[in-house]
Amino acid sequence: MTTFADALRDLTTRLAAAGVDDPRLDARLLVAEAAEVEPGRVFTRPETPLSPEHLARLAELAARREAREPMSHVLGRRGFWTLDLRVTADTLAPRGDSETVVEAVLDSGCRPRRILDLGAGTGCLVLALLSEFPEAVGVGIDASPAALEVARENAGRNGLAGRVDFNPGDWGRTVDGCFDAIVSNPPYIPDDAIAGLAPEVARFEPRLALEGGADGLDCYRALLPDIARLLAPGGLAVLEVGQGQSDAVAAIGEAAGLKPRGFRNDLSGIVRCVIFGSKGEA
Predict the structure, then answer these.
(1) What pTM was estimated for this model as a whole?
(2) Close Cβ partners of 130 (under 8 Å, ≥ 6 residues apart)
(3) Using CA atoms, how far apart are residues 30 and 8, in angstroms rounded to an integer?
(4) What is the pLDDT of residues 150-183, one digit of tens each?
(5) What pairing do the DSSP bridges indicate for beta strands 259-265 and 271-277?
(6) How confident is the model over 47-62, as pLDDT tens digits?
(7) C-alpha to C-alpha distance for 64 and 13, rounded to whole angstroms
(8) In CATH, what class is 77-277?
(9) DSSP one-letter code for 173
(10) Could you give the 3-state DSSP secondary structure of residue 235?
(11) Percent of the chain that is helix, strand, coil (3-state, to 5)
(12) At residue 262, does pLDDT exceed 80?
């Protein structure tokens, strides 16, 4: 008989040997997923036996994580802001760093009625903002049809489907109108640096969501002129950036006609967002 405690101990050892950063946490989540219980039950009821069906399911999940497939892909979901989001191999897994974009909009004092998310992926940014601004509507643009399907599902599972449209597009080139808030987490990894990233990213995350060109800035050069055209007077644009890229992105935006309004750090103290105002702003 294999109990929760047995499975947790053995899987923690296996994941540690595979190089997983937090093997005990991941092992607890996988045991809970296989046994169809809340994660806390693995600790509070360690003597609970796993059925043969649960053991078979755990073996499947454990093998995927041992191969360094991201937990969000293994579980098929991830929490972001206050949302529960579906995640697949077609989408970049939402990260806590990206919540800095949402915080920057909230702390700006802006009360957007129309929100645009360029490169929406799972839809995490626009959906998080819609959850905070109940009178707002949103548009999400992505080049990947598969990612758009995931985003639409996430809108539905979080009760936001009636307030957002997810459409295919090449950044903002096919978008018209004005938006009070524009957000984006574009690809910003230099192409030759991707192979050196953690296996969870380099092997499993979609290249389209990672590749930023030779210097990591190609996508900012492509999307910032569209943002300058689409941002309403008095509006706010917030873009996530990689470490050390903030000054360069601010300069690209200013050259496109936007007014840089500052930066925002993530919880590690790294500059994670560049904030812009509309052209002509005082």
Answers:
(1) 0.90
(2) 115, 136, 137, 138, 160, 163, 164
(3) 9
(4) 999 999 999 999 999 999 998 999 899 999 999 9
(5) antiparallel
(6) 899 999 999 999 999 9
(7) 15
(8) alpha beta
(9) T
(10) strand
(11) 45, 20, 35
(12) yes
